[in-house]
TrEMBL record:
CDD domains, alphabetized: PT_UbiA_Cox10
UniProt superkingdom: Bacteria
Transmembrane helix keyword on record: yes
InterPro entries: Protohaem_IX_farnesylTrfase, UbiA_prenyltransferase, UbiA_prenylTrfase_CS, UbiA_sf
Originating gene: ctaB
UniProt organism field: Kordiimonas sediminis
Main location (coarse class): membrane
Origin organism lineage: Bacteria, Pseudomonadati, Pseudomonadota, Alphaproteobacteria, Kordiimonadales
EC number(s) per entry: 2.5.1.141
Keyword vocabulary terms for this entry: Cell membrane, Heme biosynthesis, Membrane, Transferase, Transmembrane, Transmembrane helix
Name of the protein in question: Protoheme IX farnesyltransferase
Top EC category: transferase
PANTHER family listed in its UniProt record: 4-HYDROXYBENZOATE SOLANESYLTRANSFERASE (PTHR43448:SF7), PROTOHEME IX FARNESYLTRANSFERASE, MITOCHONDRIAL (PTHR43448)
Pathway: Porphyrin-containing compound metabolism; heme O biosynthesis; heme O from protoheme: step 1/1
Length: 310
């Protein structure tokens, strides 16, 4: 962390030795913000669907606690991400109001908070569910905090592609919490999110690339250009489509899911093609639709399982 980060927006009080000591006006909501609640909501949702879709039964209380712990682990990695990225967060417009750059939480507090929640969530998930689920959660935290945040994000335009694996693990963890295993079905759920992530974030980066440019993050539009980014969005969208429909063909989703998945993926491909041919505001439209796509894909799988017995 830079001295700038450590000293920004701090109140100062004299210490016993006459030096100024920073005082952070932290509130509970500031520590909640460190957990990236919007990202956590996606983790909760996809982990829950993975748990619902998995064969077998789990006591409702244990299922609830397991999903909660998966969410806490994801929040822990978010806090570690904010700790490491505080220097660039204070420069980027969309992140300048996060707790550390806003002077609400110190970098040291964020680091301690993230590590504590990481250990807590992994250890307790091992006790509540099983070691497989706990190990996968530990891998997820490590992947997001170390592989993506510390290693990839500032070094390569493939940061989103490789780092996207962290966001794809929650349904696998939910599945493992029930089955104590990783199967082809859970890996298909992983693949849906994994191949969804690049088109989703690259569509966003097309219209906020200047924000990344200010802090030197090598997002694809800045490194390879917008034309190449549009082509990659289309390529990944084409690769995503068969994985999006695969749950039906593998037999762990029924005809309702199959029909919905076909429509959703055709619309995704249509949006990606619109971006490729540079239709006006197509990047913003695809970004918004991609969120709806992921929600409806996983929601349909869960509802079919619960209501229709798919």
């Amino acid at each position: 962390m830079t001295d700038t980060v450590n000293n920004m927006n701090e109140a100062q009080i004299p210490s016993a030795c006459g030096q100024e000591v920073p005082v952070y006006a932290s509130e509970a909501k500031d520590f909640i913000a460190l957990l990236k609640p919007r990202v956590m909501s996606l983790v909760i949702f996809t982990a829950l669907v993975g748990l619902i879709a998995a064969p077998g039964n789990m006591h409702p209380v244990l299922a609830f606690v397991s999903v909660f712990l998966i969410a806490v682990g994801a929040g822990a990695s978010g806090a570690l991400n904010m700790w490491y990225d505080a220097d660039i967060d204070m420069i980027m417009a969309r992140t300048a109001k996060r707790p550390i750059p806003a002077g609400k939480v110190s970098p040291q507090q964020a680091l301690g908070f993230g590590i504590t929640l990481s250990v807590f969530s992994v250890a307790l998930l091992g006790l509540v569910a099983n070691v497989t689920a706990a190990a996968l959660l530990a891998l997820t935290i490590f992947f997001y905090a170390v592989i993506y945040t510390i290693w990839l994000k500032r070094r390569t335009a493939q940061n989103i592609v490789i780092g996207g694996a962290a966001g794809a693990f929650p349904p696998v963890i939910g599945w493992a919490a029930v089955t104590d295993s990783v199967t082809i079905e859970s890996l298909v759920l992983f693949a849906i999110i994994f191949f969804w992530t690049p088109p989703h974030f690259w569509a966003l980066s097309l219209f906020i690339s200047e924000d990344y440019k200010k802090v030197g993050i090598p997002m694809l539009p800045l490194v390879a250009g917008k034309a190449e980014t549009r082509k990659q969005i289309l390529i990944y969208s084409i690769v995503l489509a068969p994985f999006g429909i695969a749950p039906y063909f593998l037999g762990f989703a029924g005809p309702v899911y199959g029909a919905v998945a076909v429509v959703l993926n055709l619309l995704f491909l249509k949006g990606a093609f619109a971006v490729y041919v540079q239709k006006a505001n197509a990047d913003r439209a695809l970004f918004k639709y991609s969120i709806l796509y992921l929600f409806l894909t996983f929601a349909t799988l869960a509802v079919e399982r619960l209501v229709l017995g798919g």
